Request: fold
Amino acid sequence: MSSDLPEPWREFPGVGPKLAERLAALGITRPEGLLTHLPLRYEDRTRITALGDLRPGTNAQVVGEAQSVQIVAGRRPMLVVLLADESGFVCLRFFHFTSRMRQAFRRGAHYLCFGEVRAGTNGLELVHPGFRAVPRGRPVAVESRLTPVYPAAAGITQFQLRRCVESAFAALDAGRLAGYALASVQNGWPDLREALERIHFPPPEAGTPQTDDPALMRLAFDELLAHHLALRASRASRARESAPDLSVGARLAARMRAALPFALTEAQGRSVKEITADLAGPRPMRRLLQGDVGSGKTAVAALAAAQAIGAGFQVAFMAPTELLAEQHLRSLAPWCRETGIESGLLTASTPAADRKRLRKRIQAGEPWLLVGTHALITEGAALPRLGLAIVDEQHRFGVGQRLALSSGSDRFSPHQLVMTATPIPRTLAMTLYADLDVSTLDELPPGRRPVTTAVMNEERRAELVKRIGALVAAGQQAYWVCPLIEESEVLAAEAAEKTAEALAAALPDVEVALVHGRLKETEKNEIMRRFMAGAIGLLVATTVIEVGVDVPNASLMVVENAERLGLAQLHQLRGRVGRGEVASHCVLLYRGPLSARARERLAALRSTTDGFRIAETDLKLRGPGELVGKRQAGLAQLRVADLVRDRDLLAKVAPVAGKLAGTQPETCAALVRFWLGEAVRYAKA
Ligand code: ADP
Ligand code: MG
Reply:
């Protein structure tokens, strides 16, 4: 048995260290996570379509005999297989293929294929279909249920994912979870196992699950309930904990405030006051600081940090990515220097020797502002005198991670300040942020200009490229995003590559660079650093740049194929510009003609900058059978529940939790364990 296989997988068949790592990249860290990894869509492989009946634009499963197997030469060779049955032909086309794939096809053999039918130059084609050889002359076994297609990651096939999900079903002990008093919520909801089966492997006669499917609602409610139960318990236990007293740190905080290069906005001043009061109190602070992008959360957090350090405690400042951690340190370092506070950075890129030195000093308990990625700080660097933990972009961490952070030493629990740029409505705050008090920055520092959004047909691309040339000549920078429109990362990276080449050719005076998900982390970071430093004028990217990079000098965001992206994601992308003093623009390029729904979606984005209203529109305009949004850039890292779709459920969570906590503590513990894992202990509230 390999020792680097994480504990939850030890007893699980078919998952070794490598697969465990790849599953983790999908957010699946335990068998239960497989069950709550919802399909993106379903394929109907329950029947076989005759080749003569194929229609472009549909998905189909076909069986045929290979008439020819060819490698077509070109800049990139292509594998082309002509398949025939009694009724007609179809051409299988592979832009990428291995020699094993090439050898898998033999003239005269029969194949079962599944894929999207497209109109090609010489008739209908299946591009990159799934395929397997089948014996000739015998009936082909088809699936009896719809086949789920899951959000995937590099190195995992759909087949592997499905097999893992099946194993997770076999391992599921739904006993305790089956029968809590659901009737008090909603009659007619299926039990847990039934609900999961309906979502993962629906029988074809029942149709594709829709967003109002009772099975989905049941799962969503369970998830919300589990989160809320965990938070209730945490809040209750906080009342029994004592916190480090940071009141004597106020002097250092005042010194930092005087060192800031600007006066605080009124909203910042108010939040600082609320935080200062918490930090001087006897119980650990659990406060959410919410404020739109650019509202100045970092300065507020810095003042809180100064207060903790002034009282002789350590502060951990955590960001979701390495780049964001670096960015934070860059803003904080000068303020710290002025105030005489030592700061340090701990990320995966920190050289080992530096890391070791840093750890030593941390262990010695020096007052210290340690900025780093969440993972590194929580796993690698226990701070013995942690007085305050600051978590940026809280919505990208889950409740579980937040709660895991709360446990302090035996004597006291550290204070906690979590920050988010996503507005959180009241019912939601009461349910999923039940353990937190809230401060709001409802005001931007003076001098900001809103981002202007334009929707543009991509036929006008040349015009746009010219504009970029002028913009860069004037010393500004721009992003050009090519979203992942193919399921294959390879194809997406290739499309972005082509775009970057074309843009570089059209803009000889502009430094053009490309980042995509297939680059190594270090290469990606290097390019981002050069963009931040202004050495790159135009950054072409797949959606990897969505994470909160802050380049105030970038004033134009172009998104290609915008009609294919989720609104929440477009909103996030747009948030990358409008951070400086010049007027910023976001151009949504689309390929016409636009459907009525797509037109409405893009118009919604143009008309508002309110993230929650955008999420609402996104849901309203979601296509049939889409259980999850194009990509949920959602709050609270929920796996199944959708805070907009399920807002009616949200109101029922707290009352049910109250009753359940009093009468069925074991059920509560089981719910928390299923949805949040072992890291979050459930103590009766
Ligand atoms: P966010 O809330 O998105 O984290 P930041 O803290 O990164 O925002 O602040 C955005 C920018 O605004 C930074 O460059 C910061 O220095 C600046 N800033 C913050 N507060 C003020 C203020 N009161 N007046 C002027 N500029 C400010
Ligand atoms: Mg920020």
